[in-house]
Design goal:
single chain, 575 residues, six-stranded mixed beta sheet, alpha/beta, globular
Length: 575
């Protein structure tokens, strides 16, 4: 392994709290992380995509992206399908070799593993992670009638510390194996990506950058000087240039760009059907700029060179519906289609909140609600970061906002989905819902979750519990067998450390209650003891049955865990 790769590997192990791994095992995860980062904008747990370690079909990593989200369970796939009514799927495979050059034999074994993975029934022995990924694949193809525009994409990534030189012999072998896969008729496209040391270094550096995009914005006007705003532009942009803003380097829509929208994509309701019809008909394509309200982008950083714009750390705060319809219809877009675009460059959080409020007003969401939600998120970010040293956490309000900061431990970054799930599990007894895609919990935002009247201490306790539990899994203190029940373990921990009688979230007493839980989380002896008791409760709830991802997603299992703790379920109103 060369010196630069060793340096990157050491930095990666530090930020991911993987110092206990051997260099070869850590390299596999580095390869997984870099490959997935190139296709997925959000933070993710590298252990969720790592498959290596025996009975792995020669595959070190498997990531499955559905509608822009990284999925790990059948329920997440079905939830995403229910939300959008369609499936846009990418399969990503990784094989990593920490020493040596590109080997024809190893590459052949890699393709054998991919071939086997897509069989209806795997004949070879496989570990639990590969088995779960195969189950997801089966669920996806069972719903193939719902494929959006195209069949799934397949990306095969072979990573080594050597140098790729386009060897004719290897290229021919790879081409033949790709054609064999194509012959299955399962994919719209198949891409083999050889990554040597140089490509790995470049990928790791890209993972450190904020979300960015470069595009041409010719038809624009510079708005007059506005206090707190560095620059602001208003104009129209060709659809082809707009695609550069909303898609990543792999051609996927960047779901993280829409976190500041109040509503996710609403599928093809009457309004979105009308947008699609306008795009589909040549007679109306040229009118799109006057028929559509357009897109509003707020960027933390903007660089301009004449008509060339470079955005980084940006959000589409209005235009989620339009953006998704344009993405769905990208194969039909012509030069006639122009999109109204407003670009605002500011780092003033008050202005950002005001823009979000002004551009997202809807009858069911008041301006006050929008502003309060933004203010709560800002307060939560500051609150989590205010704790000292090893108690500190980083709340990620914007995708990859901490990527450029040196020395940040990735495991201490808490994303919005993670915060919602951890809080719902630990304090709302919604562990079974937290085990699914978080859209149903998101409907409670502003009411039971992220309510402006709530104290912040319970959110910190839930976030730190999520972090600490992952830390114990990674370091082998707790068996990874129990990871499917992680949210039930968080719920159980609250009962064990704090007791059943919990004050209302807006009451001052909830601060003391949450701090009692935090004291247990900060104590290495007590945290281990409580989580092991929580595991005993999970075992009791299982009553001899195996622990699966399906088991944990029912209200009945949540109730059984509470009963095992000595707290039979009862009706409770949280506020």
């Amino acid at each position: 392994m060369d010196r630069i790769t060793k340096t990157y590997l050491e930095a990666f192990q530090s930020e991911q709290s993987l110092g206990h791994l051997s260099p070869s095992d850590a390299f596999e995860r580095l390869a997984d992380y870099c490959v997935v980062c190139d296709a997925y904008d959000d933070e993710f747990n590298v252990e969720d995509v790592h498959t290596g370690g025996g009975a792995d079909l020669g595959l070190d990593g498997i990531a499955i992206l559905v509608n822009g989200a990284l999925v790990t369970s059948r329920e997440e796939v079905m939830d995403l399908l229910a939300i959008s009514g369609s499936l846009d799927v990418t399969f990503i495979f990784v094989q990593a070799k920490s020493g040596g050059d590109f080997s024809g034999e190893s590459i052949g074994t890699f393709f054998d593993g991919v071939d086997e993975f897509f069989q209806e029934r795997i004949e070879l022995p496989v570990n639990e992670t590969v088995s779960q990924a195969h189950e997801l694949m089966e669920v996806i193809y069972e719903n193939s009638v719902k494929f959006k525009n195209k069949k799934p994409s397949c990306r095969i990534n072979y990573v080594t510390t050597g140098q790729w030189v386009s060897d004719g012999y290897l290229t021919t072998k790879i081409t033949r194996r790709v054609e064999r896969l194509r012959g299955t008729g399962l994919f719209s496209e198949i891409e083999f990506n050889p990554m040597g040391a140089d490509e790995l270094h470049a990928s790791y550096q890209r993972s450190k950058n904020s979300v960015s995009a470069e595009f041409t914005f010719s038809n624009k006007v510079l708005l007059p000087e506005i206090p707190g705003v560095e620059e602001a532009y208003l104009g129209v942009i060709p659809a082809s240039e707009f695609m550069k803003i909303v898609t990543d380097g792999s051609g996927n829509i960047r779901k993280s760009l829409f976190y500041d929208n109040i509503r996710d994509f609403q599928d093809y309701n009457p309004v979105n059907i009308e947008i699609r019809q306008t795009l589909a008909e040549a007679a109306t394509q040229g009118r799109f700029a006057v028929l559509n309200n357009g897109i509003t982008i707020v960027a933390q950083n903007l660089q301009t060179t004449r008509d060339k714009f470079t955005l980084s750390d940006y959000q589409i705060v209005n235009g989620c519906q339009t953006s998704h319809v344009l993405f769905d219809e990208r194969g039909k877009l012509t030069d006639l289609i122009h999109i109204p675009l407003k670009v605002i460059s500011t780092q003033d959080e008050e202005i950002i909140s005001s823009v979000i409020t002004a551009t997202n007003r809807q009858t069911q969401v008041t301006a006050e609600d929008l502003y309060a939600l933004g203010a709560f998120q800002k307060k939560l970010e500051a609150f989590l970061a205010a704790y000292p040293d090893k108690k500190k956490l980083l709340y990620e309000r914007r995708s990859k906002q901490y990527n450029a900061q040196p020395g940040v431990e990735k495991v201490r970054i808490i994303t919005k989905p993670q915060q919602i799930k951890a809080f719902a599990a630990m304090f709302l007894d919604d562990a079974h819902r937290s085990s699914r895609y978080y859209s149903d919990l998101q409907a409670q935002v502003g009411d039971k979750i992220f309510n402006e009247q709530h104290k912040l201490e319970p959110y910190y306790a839930a976030a730190f519990g999520f972090y600490k539990l992952e830390f114990l899994f990674r370091n082998g203190v707790l068996p990874v067998y129990y990871k499917p029940a992680r949210y039930h373990l968080l719920m159980a921990f609250r009962y064990l450390a704090g007791g059943r009688e919990m004050p209302a979230f807006h009451a001052n007493k909830i601060q003391k209650y949450s701090n009692v839980i935090c004291e247990a989380l900060w104590d290495d002896v007590r945290v281990e003891r409580h989580f092991k008791k929580a595991i005993e409760a999970v075992d009791s709830a299982l009553n001899g049955a195996p622990l699966t991802r399906d088991t944990v997603k029912t209200q009945g299992f949540t109730d059984a865990v509470k009963t095992a703790l000595g707290y039979p379920p009862r009706s409770r109103s949280f506020s």
